[in-house]
Amino acid sequence: MKTIGITTTVPIEVLIAAGYKVIDLNNIFITSKDYGKYIELAERDGFPKSCCAWIKGIYGACLENNIKEVIGVMEGDCSNTKALIEVLNLKGIKTYPFSYPHSHSLEDIRVSIDSFMDLFKVNMQQVEEVRKNINEIRELAKKIDENTYKTNKTTGFENHLYQVSVSDLNGDANEFKRFLEEKLKEIEGRKPINKKVRLGFIGVPPMTADIYEYVEEFNAHFVYNEVQREFAFPRVDKAKDIYEQYYDYTYVYNIDFRLSDIKKQIEERKIDGIIHYTQAFCYRAIQDIVIKNELNVPVLNIEGDSINSLDSRTKLRLEAFIDMLIDIKEAAI
């Protein structure tokens, strides 16, 4: 089976229908025990220090794992992807474009996905058959998410990991489905996690995944992971076809569209405070201005760089933020 790398969530239904094994290069990078080597490789090849660690990690993961074909999202995701694709082309890697149109028009989405299907020589019937199978996996991820905030049995890290993994189905849809089925049974048999503060995590998935375990030391629990949840397409049951599914994918469109769903989740999950994670040198950090103005719960912005664990300053800020949320809750009683 041919292997193809992706730089972020794309219509994998098209790629699987075309006979590819899909690998999310982000997941290869961040789960590596020696993730730093990917960043170092990119910097040796000329990537500047003032470039997002994710972009450098994707580049290094692609080269080190001998990925010969890559999908680059040219509109709707990272603004550095275009330059990344140009460098990958220079290295002899075959690249394909995909775009989430800025217009957020269903008709423009249709044109973009149709072009993607034409590029890989598959038709709508083939793609919809694959989508039907993948949606069964997405439903399992949705149940795991529901166990995070309804029964409080899924940890914040598990919620993050299993939803983010839906982007490429861990490279094997059937095996991943079996894994989630077993994990769901295990989760449902647990006792609830009883923490005083309910947190939401918005923004790009973190390099500092230890944040989930760390907040639990201070009587807090993440019950919502915004972008990871979007990777799992939680509203897919309402989409009649692949066009509507990717039209309803919030993260890649304008901030107002994202915020409308974030606000719903804050209310439904009874969230006390939001952690807004941004990556150093990323334009999305500027959106923190809008986010803090629009949300009606306290928001703490933390920034990651090239280290995969929380630094001392960030730990202190998180502790102080949680203490403040506890004081607010106690004062309201």
From TrEMBL:
GO molecular function: hydro-lyase activity; iron-sulfur cluster binding
Superkingdom field: Bacteria
Cofactor annotation: [4Fe-4S] cluster
InterPro entries: FldB/FldC_alpha/beta
Keywords tagged on the record: Iron, Iron-sulfur, Metal-binding
Family designation: Belongs to the FldB/FldC dehydratase alpha/beta subunit family.
Protein name listed in UniProt: 2-hydroxyglutaryl-CoA dehydratase
Naturally occurring in which organism (per UniProt): Clostridium polyendosporum
